[in-house]
Design a protein that fits this description.
3-stranded antiparallel beta sheet, elongated, 4-stranded antiparallel beta sheet, 7 strands, about 50% helix, alpha+beta, PH-domain like, 2 domains
């Protein structure tokens, strides 16, 4: 049985900041980087604490570099990208998603794109968003805010269609 579902929403700056941050946290490279930064920070903290003498400039750099990187990667950079997205009329115009067994047709007043299920790697779920991750470009994704659904039944239908089609590719 082929089911079809249509949702509409207008993305905003906060959407872009959140989904960029959330997408980055989903990536394996990011998780590895966070572990390495935590180890570097812990080692530098241990060296400084156990040494007992004054802290060198090199040690200060290793103490501040990991937190500064995390602040940049998870707050400054996503906020900057979100600000740029909000200034691009094509990215903050109303979008219509038509979801069916053929794929996801995303239409705005500027263009229309069909995402075929074979090009979607997986669905990632957060509290407020769904992210469809690209299979061919590991840096690409599309997002759908949960506020786009008119009812819990509509959201369940979306999940059913996505699960049915992503699992078979």
């Amino acid at each position: 049985m082929s089911q079809s579902l249509t949702m509409r929403y207008t993305p905003n700056q906060q959407d872009y900041a959140y989904v960029v941050r959330y997408f980055n946290l989903q990536r394996r490279g990011t998780k590895i980087s966070l572990v390495l930064l935590a180890l570097a920070f812990g080692l530098a903290l241990f060296v400084v604490a156990s040494k007992g003498s004054s802290v060198t400039v090199f040690e200060l750099i290793w103490l501040f570099l990991p937190p500064v990187f995390v602040i940049y990667a998870y707050f400054i950079q996503p906020a900057s990208l979100a600000k740029k997205a909000a200034q691009n009329e094509k990215l903050v115009t109303e979008a219509t998603w038509e979801v069916s067994d053929a794929g996801v047709q995303i239409t705005s007043r500027f263009n229309s794109t069909l995402l075929e299920w074979g090009n979607i790697n997986k669905l990632v779920t957060s509290k407020d968003y769904y992210l469809l991750l690209s299979k061919t470009n590991k840096n690409a994704f599309r997002f759908l805010p949960r506020r786009a659904f008119n009812s819990p039944q509509e959201e369940e239908l979306f999940l059913d269609v996505v699960e049915r089609n992503i699992s078979r590719v």
